[in-house]
Amino acid sequence: MSGDQLPTLKRRAYKDQVFCWIESGETEKVIKFIDAYEHHAKQFVTMNSWSIPMFACRYGNLQLLEFLHKKKLIYEGNYQYTLVHAACFGNEIEVLKYLLDVLKKDPVPMNEQQPPLKICFRAENQSLAELLISRGAYFQYGSFCHNVRLETVMPQNPQQQPQHKYKTIQRDPKNNEIVEIEVPASLVFQSTSIPKDSNMLPFLRFSRIRNFIYVRRVYENQTVPFNDEKKKENFYSFAKIAFENPMRRERILEYLIGNKEVRDNGGQQQPQLTNVSNQVPPVAYNKPVQYQNPPNQNPQQMMPNQNYNQQVPLQGAPHNYQNQGQPQNPNYQPVQQHPQQNNQVPPQFNNAQNHPNPN
């Protein structure tokens, strides 16, 4: 049998052979089989009810997935997992982009046991998690909720526990209006399920801060006045008012629903997380003072950086030392020294032979 010909097998044998071809990357054989036996291909599923499209997503076969989309053979077959789950199981980011952007698959399928974002965090795949979050996946970090809002209903009986509900906003395709729907709590990924030593916890923390900065920027730039009553409401109330502006409506929808990737920082480079305890203080103690030159000053008049052997002014030093060996320029502004160092004389001034007596 040549590589371009299909083997002569029975239907049951073809069922196992097709999935072996997908797993081994023999795409041409699968395409030829589907062209010849399209009515049989719809019935082929594995023992765990995985269909041919799900197997293509699992093993990153984007060519086969595009062919199945043209043939209108995109089906799932498994009641528990979807195509998005299969792409996350295989860590296939290109396939996941195709599912979310081209096929318009839901980044949060109605699977209450294991949302796709949980699979990405278990595999510690930040690229897949970032893609799902930018397309509208739900997660909660502390008191912050992404793409959803947390509503707390206080019971009338004080002995009962308050009820928590997650709600989000979506566009109704029938009348093209924004409606609020309730989201099952099991679809919201919780940061408490991440181990403390996992690398994904700082990533989720940074995603929370970055998205909050974006929402805050949109909030400050909106022109609709708020009264005292609406100030007490949460972000959904603001978003509902902001949707009245058609120019702002699409931008907020891109953030909330994830129609496409949004630069949350307005196009600037995103800040990096640093350890504050390891940062060097801005002014080193017992070091010469560096001048802050005005922005409009002539470069020829700019003061060069002082080295440790030159005489430099120091705030709190004797008056005769202030202008010794320095040009008379009122625009110079010395950097403020630490409060504990204001009344101390720098080490190089302790040598009386190198400096005249101020008296």
TrEMBL record:
Region called Disordered, residue ranges: 285-359
Entry-linked InterPro entries: Ankyrin_rpt (IPR002110), Ankyrin_rpt-contain_sf (IPR036770)
Biased composition (Low complexity): 288-359
SUPFAM superfamilies for the chain: Ankyrin repeat
Annotated protein name in UniProt: Ankyrin repeat protein
UniProt source species: Tetrahymena thermophila (strain SB210)
